[in-house]
Amino acid sequence: VQVDPRRHADPDFMVNQAVEINRLAPNLSIKIPVTQAGLTAIEELTARGVTTTATVSFTLPQVVRVAETFRRGLVRARAGHANRPVQCFAVLMAGRLDDHLRDVAKEKGLDVGEKALTSAGVAVVKKASRLFRDRGYESRLLVGAMRGPYHITEFMGADIVLTTPLNLHEVFAGAGGRFPARIDEPVSSDIVQELSDKLPDFVRAYEEDGMAPDEFAGFGSTAKTLSQFVRAFEDTTAFAGSLI
After folding, report:
1. In the chain, count of helices (H) and strands (E)?
2. What are the strands, taking DSSP E only, across 94-176?
3. For 26-78, what is each residue's pLDDT tens digit?
4. How many angstroms separate the Cα of 22 from the Cα of each of 26, 31, 210?
5. How far apart are CA 21 and CA 17, in angstroms?
6. 216-242: per-residue pLDDT in tens?
7. Can you say how many angstroms the Cα of residue 176 is from the centroid of all Cα atoms in its chain?
8. Distance CA 193, CA 203 (A)
């Protein structure tokens, strides 16, 4: 369940609304956008025993900050003797990163191969998976915004959550057999180099120090997605209001 996206810059509002929503059922995960304000909210909610899904997230700097934020929240929760199980799902919207980079390449007239563009999100997820495993982060990676079967096959063998659309479920249901683990097979260094040379936003997404938290809200994918979420929220509330 997502907090009001119009208030994504207000951590106190997001915390209060999340706590209120969380009272509705014991198995909810509250979606908080990964902006600087969102990170503040995630730490506070974790300390209060509220499970979160750190959404509107596309980059390695974002999920690493989420993992570190969740870890701090867990320390606070334990110090406060909170005994309710709590989790944080660190989202990577892989396909939306690809979409953004494709848009940038088109706008700037850059010659970037389609194979490279469809590998950007894959490269970020694989690097994040390795870092999460090596550092023993308590949060779980969650991959969404899939654009094709490769957003499943390339992540086989990973300890991550996948949110898959129905059309991809149907593809794999009809395929049968087993699929080899590919999570530890890195994206070609030539592809990573092409993306890095031509698209600075890929560097911002792929390198752990590519962005600081105060830059998250202004990153292209984040700004686009927040705008879409706000429009969808307003359309939904207007429709619901028309029925009352």
Report:
1. 11, 5
2. 140-144, 161-162
3. 899 999 999 999 999 999 999 999 999 999 999 999 999 999 999 999 999 99
4. 7, 11, 33
5. 6
6. 999 999 999 999 999 999 999 999 999
7. 29
8. 10
Task: Tell me if 244 is assigned to some domain.
Answer: no
Burial class (CB in 10 A: 0-12, 13-18, 19+), 225: buried
Cβ atoms within 10 Å, residue 162 = 15
pLDDT, tens digit (0-9, with 9 covering 90-100), for 125-152: 999 999 999 999 999 999 999 999 999 9
pTM over 0.85: yes
Instruction: Give the Å distances, CA to CA, from 243 to 1, 2, 102, 237.
Output: 21, 22, 39, 10
Q: Give how many domains the chain has, as a whole number.
A: 1
CATH of the domain at 110: 3.20.20.70
31 catalytic per annotation: yes
Asked if the model's pLDDT at residue 172 lies above 80, the reply is no
What is the overall mean pLDDT for the chain? 95
**Whole-angstrom Cα distance, residue 234 to residue 187?**
39
Q: Is residue 238 part of a domain?
A: no
**What's the CA dihedral at 26, 27, 33, 39 to 10 degrees?**
60
Q: Is residue 243 part of a domain?
A: no
In a domain, 67, yes or no: yes
Task: For residue 69, report the phi and psi dihedrals to the nearest 5 degrees.
Answer: -65, -45
Range of the domain at 133: 5-229
147, 173 contact by CB (below 8 A): no
Task: Tell me how far apart the alpha carbons of residues 116 and 120 are, in angstroms, rounded to a whole number.
Answer: 6
Q: Which residues contact 39 (CB under 8 A, 6 or more apart)?
A: 65, 66, 69, 213
